[in-house]
Amino acid sequence: MTGEDYTGGPAPRSWPDRLVEPVSAASRHLTDAQIVAGRPAEAEKHLVDCGWCAARVRDAAPADNPDDVAFLAALRARDRRLDEPAWTSAVPSKSVLAVAGSGPAGEDVRPGELWTVSWHGTSHMVAVVAIDRWLAQVVPVTTDARLADEYAAVVGAVGSPLEVPLALWGRASAWLAAFVFDRRLAVLPELGGQPAGKALARLLAAYALDVHAPADLPVGARVLAGEIDRVGLVESLTHTMLALARANDRLDALVTDPAEAEAPTVDVAALLGRAGLPLGELAARTGLTPDALRKIKMRGSATRAEAEAIGAALGVAAEDLIGTPFAPDALVLAASRPSRREQRRRWTAERYGDEDPDDPLPLIRHILDHPVAARTVPSAAAGSAGANQRHWDDRVSVVLATTPEG
After folding, report:
1. Using the 8-state DSSP alphabet, how is residue 255 labeled?
2. Where is the domain boundary, 77, 103, 129?
3. What is the residue range of 382's domain?
4. pLDDT tens figures, 328-368
5. Is residue 264 part of a domain?
6. What does each C-alpha distance from 199 to 37, 136, 151, 216 come to in angstroms?
7. Is residue 342 part of a domain?
8. Is pLDDT at 206 greater than 90 in this prediction?
9. Single residue among 29, 51, 77 that ends a domain in this structure
10. Radius of gyration of the chain from Cα atoms?
């Protein structure tokens, strides 16, 4: 699989030779830190399939390899860090690591940019192809351009904004939500004389139609029978993109089409009146304060949390009390911006401690449940998409800046 047999026979001549990583396998090679300091349980399966990593583990064991000084010296001399980031599929240069670690979070995702993305322990580097509302079409990026296939665009080291060759894998494209984007790394150069986003869109169209990639685009070589490493890498990248795309499911519960929104089927104020219970007893049963119950009766509506408390106490489904509110695309985008990710995480942890802090759904629902005063946020100008987006951005900013009560 790796082009060199590590399963038997003599070991490589020296430690530096042994530290030259073979081409990527279907699962990621163990990092040096895992070899030296311990490895996760899932690494054991990789060791069964990968003779190179198995040899490194054997050679690093003091009982089998008394020359630990040479081993550690070789590690220190390598041009890679022991804490190699999980978002790479091949070893990056120190410049890549420096850019990824120090760059500020980006505001908006745009075609032709390189980003890091992450969701629930899965992370990677991607190139942005196109934007649709709060979704971005991306292709995974690796720094091992030698493995690029006929649908992977190649950026040479000279033209690469990260100073290393890049492979942009069209076979593993995906649509990812804006809230999984972490940091903007760089802007890609033109490919085939076109902006990178447009060039990648042409590449994806060729792949979808099962025709050759455009002749003016620099791509890799066709995958031949028996090239297990290259096939395995594409499968690994596809699996990673599918894992990241599962974040999109979090917003499936939102209604972004006004025609599909539904009004409450039960009037919450009338329900509280029909209960015939003193305010104090209602408060005791629902866990809401008497003041909160008075406000619900006055405005004739309840937040999701209030509806769940009232519904549980009076035997009514919370959805019947709040309906299915319309969530404008502009609100979803405003709540999902990468620049707000850390602030949104803190806000969610403080207000909704049981919710996933990476999930923007609690923030979106909170804004729908808690209209702000008209004087706090300027209204959107009718018919102006830009003003409408600014309106929702302002509302999100106001909510995120608000300190939880109590």
Report:
1. B
2. 77
3. 329-400
4. 888 899 999 999 999 999 999 998 888 889 999 889 888 88
5. no
6. 44, 16, 12, 9
7. yes
8. yes
9. 77
10. 27
Q: Which of 61, 121, 63, 53 is nearest to 87 (CA)?
A: 121
Higher pLDDT among residues 223 and 199, named by residue: 199
300 shares a domain with 347: no
- 233, two tokens: 């890498």
> Can you tell me which residue has the tokens 């490919």?
191
Distance CA 17, CA 11 (A): 10
Do 110 and 226 fall within a single domain?
yes
Tokens 């590449």 sit on residue:
203
Q: How many domains does the chain have?
A: 4
Helix (H) or strand (E) holding 333: helix 329-336
Same structural domain, 58 and 115: no
CB count within 10 Å of CB 21 equals 16
Return the residue matching tokens 């430690």: 15
Q: Are residues 231 and 305 in the same domain?
A: no
Are residues 368 and 325 in contact, defined by beta-carbon separation less than 8 angstroms? yes
- What length does the chain have? 406
Tell me how far CA of residue 381 lies from CA of 255, 368, 384, 388, in angstroms.
23, 19, 6, 7
Q: How far apart are CA 176 and CA 173, in angstroms?
A: 10
The verdict on residue 351 lying in a domain is yes
Q: Extract the tokens encoding 388.
A: 């409408």
